[in-house]
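Severity: low
Component: inverse-folding endpoint
Summary: output formatting inconsistent between runs
Steps to reproduce: submit the following structure tokens with default settings.
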């Protein structure tokens, strides 16, 4: 038996590393176990988000958008840029440097806060013991008073499209293309599929996105989803709804995809195929059979509203438990658990977890959609304001999309904010702050917003809820 800790965290992703830092800040002797190895062969902290998810994908999204603007957006501003080209290897190298910067930053934060880093695969045994298998195969056992399981998730693989490592790849592989594929297929029109499809479309690839569902972005508000679909089609993303992939055949450096849609059985050939059909909890070999923690049939760890498992002193957070697989949700759960271990009564508001798709324009929302509320028989009032009527958006040539505010028709309390357009994630966060404090649409409408800003669109949408918008014609109340 090795050292004993107040808290041992398994996993150093957004849930785990934040939990470890917060626990250490609260005076608890804390260790964090992580087995992930970076491109340099050394332990890399930060989990999927920092290494192969949120951060690297945003680096590529921003690089590809700058290239797209230089090619197609400068002329409008009177700027002539001739012979614009893209060095994909340099773009990917920049992405890798950003990843290394942030994963190294987590290691620095661990040192600053006194968190012990343990390298290897962690497994929960009975009586809150943690078995760690190091990179050399040596096994060490640690004792903890409290355990936080933050093992994260991994991309889902599907039988019709087995990964090959070069032609058929998952989201991780799609971050490391060394050249722009002429023809790119993407299975899945969710967040990951749309973001990665956008990156390579901007750089010149012909992109087809296969979505098995008949409805586009089923979790988003209807009007936002419909406008987004139109926008992406204009950008050249060929999004095929109701298209179910039935098989793939790789020949040399090409892959032929067989699929069925409303027109029957069809085939298309691509140079690369990205499988982006979602993620599943990474809980394999995490739990000993006698540790007492329960999983469901999908590998999700059972927890209560405070992320406690059925074993006292054992908690689980992030992608391994119920709820949306989002880095910010994981981090807040990590903070909540660390503070509850330290004796605080911290709770988390799961009703106000924002969702963002970092396409261009961005799509973001918080709270409930108009459709959800109507299904729950809640009478609502709706305010919509288009960015085409917003001075800052027009000046920036970012006029696509709108802000939609949904409020309770009786109390005027804001129940949802939905945005397609420039800075959507930031505007939705303003909505989330207002909603956290029980704001009414009238409250937002009475606040002073600086001019000209795109955030004025949120104020105007809030005013429009009650027919008071100034810079767009108000819809007549029925």
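Observed output (run 2 of 3):
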């Amino acid at each position: 038996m090795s050292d004993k800790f107040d808290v041992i965290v398994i996993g150093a992703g957004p849930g785990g590393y934040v939990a470890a830092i917060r626990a250490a800040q609260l005076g608890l002797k804390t260790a964090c176990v992580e087995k992930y190895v970076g491109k340099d062969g050394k332990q890399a902290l930060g989990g999927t988000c920092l290494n192969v998810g949120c951060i690297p994908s945003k680096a590529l999204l921003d690089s590809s958008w700058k290239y797209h603007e230089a090619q197609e957006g400068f002329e409008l501003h009177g700027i002539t840029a001739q012979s614009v080209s893209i060095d994909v290897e340099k773009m990917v190298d920049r992405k890798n440097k950003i990843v290394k910067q942030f994963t190294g930053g987590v290691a620095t934060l661990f040192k600053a806060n006194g968190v012990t880093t343990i390298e290897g695969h962690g497994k929960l045994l009975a009586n809150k013991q943690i078995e760690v298998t190091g990179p050399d195969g040596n096994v060490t056992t640690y004792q903890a008073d409290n355990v936080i399981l933050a093992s994260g998730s991994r991309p889902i693989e599907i039988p019709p499209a087995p990964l090959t490592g070069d032609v058929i790849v998952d989201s991780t592989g799609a971050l490391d293309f060394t050249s722009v594929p002429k023809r790119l297929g993407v299975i899945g029109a969710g967040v990951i599929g749309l973001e990665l499809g956008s990156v390579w479309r901007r750089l010149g690839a012909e992109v087809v996105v296969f979505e098995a569902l008949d409805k586009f972005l089923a979790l988003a508000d209807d009007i936002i989803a419909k406008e987004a679909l139109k926008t992406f089609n204009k950008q050249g993303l060929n999004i095929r709804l109701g298209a179910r992939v039935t098989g793939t055949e790789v020949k040399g450096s090409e892959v032929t995809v067989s699929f069925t849609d409303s027109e029957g059985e069809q085939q298309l050939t691509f140079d690369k195929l990205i499988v982006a059909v979602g993620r599943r909890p990474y809980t394999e070999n995490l739990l000993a059979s006698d540790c007492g923690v329960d999983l469901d049939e999908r590998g999700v760890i059972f927890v209560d509203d405070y992320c406690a498992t059925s074993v006292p002193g054992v908690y689980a957070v992030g992608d391994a438990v119920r709820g949306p697989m989002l880095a910010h949700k994981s981090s807040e759960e990590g903070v909540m658990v660390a503070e509850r271990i330290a004796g605080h009564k911290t709770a988390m508001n799961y009703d106000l977890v924002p969702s963002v798709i970092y396409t261009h324009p961005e799509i973001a929302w918080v709270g409930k959609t108009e459709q959800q509320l109507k299904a729950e028989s809640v009478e609502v009032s709706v305010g919509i304001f288009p960015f085409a009527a917003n001075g800052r958006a027009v000046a920036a040539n970012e006029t696509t999309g709108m802000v939609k505010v949904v409020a309770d028709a009786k109390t005027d309390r804001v129940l949802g904010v939905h945005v397609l357009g420039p800075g959507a994630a930031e505007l939705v966060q303003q909505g989330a702050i207002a909603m956290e404090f029980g704001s009414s649409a009238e409250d937002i409408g009475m606040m002073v917003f600086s001019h000209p800003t795109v955030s004025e669109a949120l104020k105007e949408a809030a005013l429009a809820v009650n027919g008071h918008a100034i810079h767009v014609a108000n819809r007549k109340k029925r």
